[in-house]
Amino acid sequence: MYSQLIILSIIFIESSFGGGGDGCPPQLSGCECGIRPYGTSGRPTYVTNCTNQQFNQSAEQYMRHVPIETEVLLMVGNLFPQLSRNLLNQSERYDKLYMVDLSRNGIETIHGQAFHNMRSVQILHLDHNNLSISDQHSKQTIHPRIFSPLKSLEELHLRNTFSKTRYLNNSIELINSLTDLFHSTNLSLTLKLLNLESNHLTSLGSEQFFCQLSSIQRIRLADNLLTTYPINSSCLRWLSSIDLSSNMIVSMDQHSIDLIGSSGMERIGSLHVDLSDNPFRCDCSLLPFFRYIRNITSATVDIRHVPKIEHVQRFRCSHQSTVSIDIKENILMISLNWISIVHRRQRQQRHQHR
Ligand SMILES: *[C@@H]1O[C@H](CO)[C@@H](O)[C@H](O)[C@H]1NC(C)=O
Ligand SMILES: *[C@@H]1O[C@H](CO)[C@@H](O)[C@H](O)[C@H]1NC(C)=O
Ligand SMILES: *[C@@H]1O[C@H](CO)[C@@H](O)[C@H](O)[C@H]1NC(C)=O
Ligand SMILES: *[C@@H]1O[C@H](CO)[C@@H](O)[C@H](O)[C@H]1NC(C)=O
Ligand SMILES: *[C@@H]1O[C@H](CO)[C@@H](O)[C@H](O)[C@H]1NC(C)=O
Ligand SMILES: *[C@@H]1O[C@H](CO)[C@@H](O)[C@H](O)[C@H]1NC(C)=O
Ligand SMILES: *[C@@H]1O[C@H](CO)[C@@H](O)[C@H](O)[C@H]1NC(C)=O
Ligand SMILES: *[C@@H]1O[C@H](CO)[C@@H](O)[C@H](O)[C@H]1NC(C)=O
């Protein structure tokens, strides 16, 4: 009797969550729509999941049929070169929709009004696409206001988003257009995380580039081609982390040290900076930086407001370095003193040989 009840209730639960097998309207056949545990907390969440459906008509033909209850929309791994205006049904209110993932869709262009009706979306992923946001000939930004309907946006993920053919040797054109996009929105009020990883960026144009995003807390720039420390964070009161790992930073001169230390406004907590896996040239020019690290990690400074340099054990020397050596956290200063001694000896020897 009990077991029959249990079986019945299981069937009931499955049919109420699963609908006719997948719970989706016919236009989204193949997708999964329904409540399931989601995220690290496993909270029951209404997920509409159209991953790898090989959809290749225009995106709005599918997205206009997304169930109104949807909280998380995964439209990943399809083929949508153009995102046209009004992706969602404009007659509906998607009040619960807080996360939209449009990664891996081969997106090349986005219409200025594509994201209308997404005012509740907090997290937007556009990772791994082929996007151009400026005109090939005029270099002007095509739709400066594309992000402006996203009135609640807290996380913008643009990892490997932009066209390599367009921007490979043109970081500045990309950066100028991103500046236009941020300038034409109120993202400065809401945005807490910006991910620009893996976009072949060689420069951010200005050390003040992020100042227009005054609420930003986390900046992710890993896996680009930046050659110097690029950010003056004195304008960013809430900033808590900058990830610059796996770039092309060769040295950290006094100006870079000043940039890390700069905090014109009183910062709320410590700033965490990750510089691991950069090809540091390990010679004497790095000594001031390592003295700085030693100073800020020493117990004598008030540790609440000084920057924290993360993953020092993953610092590495480029093969062009005068002396190549594994720098481990504990023996950092010893190694560097040793480097400078070896360096001096080598110079003296060269002198003597002459
Ligand atoms: C979405 O669907 C894909 C492919 O079926 C699956 O691998 C993934 O785990 C699903 N994600 C969620 C959150 O249900
Ligand atoms: C679009 O998808 C359908 C069904 O998977 C397929 O038959 C068609 O060849 C695809 N068209 C393009 C242009 O990829
Ligand atoms: C959009 O929503 C309205 C109101 O619910 C509905 O009548 C209409 O059929 C929907 N359009 C599409 C394309 O689903
Ligand atoms: C990316 O888009 C450009 C046009 O902007 C096109 O020439 C190129 O073939 C596309 N690359 C891929 C991998 O789809
Ligand atoms: C980018 O610049 C490098 C070096 O200047 C050059 O070898 C490469 O061909 C350029 N690539 C493109 C796509 O223009
Ligand atoms: C920013 O917000 C203000 C006040 O809510 C509004 O007047 C203005 O039009 C918004 N700007 C943009 C670009 O959305
Ligand atoms: C950072 O910017 C502030 C404000 O523009 C400026 O006063 C300060 O000198 C800058 N810091 C560095 C190291 O350039
Ligand atoms: C060490 O750090 C403290 C706190 O940031 C600073 O006041 C002091 O000038 C630094 N000393 C050196 C030698 O860098």
TrEMBL record:
GO cellular component terms, semicolon-separated: plasma membrane
Domain of life: Eukaryota
Signal peptide residues on this chain, from the entry's feature table: 1-23
Key words of the record: Leucine-rich repeat, Repeat, Signal
Annotated protein name in UniProt: Uncharacterized protein
Species annotation: Blomia tropicalis (Mite)
